[in-house]
């Protein structure tokens, strides 16, 4: 849905961070929507969550195509369970603060069950940036609907993975 809103002068990259950080979609212009949608469709859940490495790679991508007149933003989609790499919030908050001073901002889209962790992230961003974070009712419903959709999709991916594994391989 959001991909269809991209314009030709927009750029988007997709960074993954299951186990290790990787570049799933290199910086791509907004008029190449089919390639972007294919990259999104190819995403799968699995493995550990090296969120800090993913965030660092995402910031590198954002800075490499920084536009002083543009909106330079990293959008983090997460359940909030960073269990590999830097897992403490202090160093991640410092990174977000440093990048915000340079003009690259972080937005967090949290998924259940990491809702409380995401709320902590929203609070930290509010404190760091001095901006109040809020939604009007239509945007709130959109984000809630997208969150539910992502939860269902991640559940489907997880179940596909669980059902495709030989039980003997688990032990």
Number of strands: 4
Distance between the termini: 41 Å
Strand order of the main beta sheet, please? Answer: 1-2
Q: Count of DSSP helices?
A: 5
Give the low-pLDDT segments.
Answer: none
Q: On the 0-100 scale, what is the average pLDDT?
A: 75
Shape: globular
Order of H and E elements:
EEHHEHEHH
Structural class: alpha+beta
Radius of gyration: 17 Å
What is the share of helical residues? 40-55%
Strand content range:
15-25%
Largest sheet: 2 strands, antiparallel
List the helices and strands and how they pair.
Layout (H helix, E strand, L loop, with lengths): L10 E6 L5 E8 L3 H9 L9 H14 L7 E7 L10 H13 L2 E7 L4 H15 L7 H28 L7
Parallel strand pairs: 3-4
Antiparallel strand pairs: 1-2
Would you kindly provide a written description of the structure presented here, covering whatever features stand out?
The structure is a single chain. This protein has 171 residues and is an alpha+beta fold. The chain is 46% helix and 16% strand. It contains five helices and four strands, in the order ββααβαβαα. The strands form two sheets. Strands 1-2 form a two-stranded antiparallel ribbon. Strand 3 (72-78), helix 3 (89-101) and strand 4 (104-110) form a beta-alpha-beta unit. Helix 3 (89-101) crosses helix 4 (115-129). The longest helix is centred in the last third of the chain and has 28 residues, at 137-164. The protein is globular. The chain starts with 10 loop residues before the first strand and ends in a 7-residue tail after the last helix. 18% of the residues are buried.
């Amino acid at each position: 849905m959001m991909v269809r809103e991209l314009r030709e002068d927009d750029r988007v990259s997709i960074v993954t961070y299951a186990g290790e950080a990787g570049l799933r979609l290199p910086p791509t212009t907004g008029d190449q929507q089919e390639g972007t949608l294919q990259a999104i469709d190819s995403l799968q859940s699995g493995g550990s969550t090296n969120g800090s490495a993913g965030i660092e790679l995402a910031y590198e991508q954002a800075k490499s195509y920084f536009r002083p007149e543009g909106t330079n933003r990293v959008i983090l989609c997460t359940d909030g369970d960073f269990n590999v790499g830097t897992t403490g919030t202090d160093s991640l908050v410092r990174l977000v603060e440093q990048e915000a001073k340079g003009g690259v901002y972080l937005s967090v889209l949290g998924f259940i069950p990491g809702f409380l962790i995401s709320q902590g992230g929203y609070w930290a961003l509010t404190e760091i940036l001095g901006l109040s974070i809020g939604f009007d009712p239509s945007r709130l419903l959109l984000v809630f609907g997208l969150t539910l959709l992502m939860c269902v999709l991640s559940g489907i991916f997880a179940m596909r993975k669980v059902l495709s594994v030989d039980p003997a391989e688990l032990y």
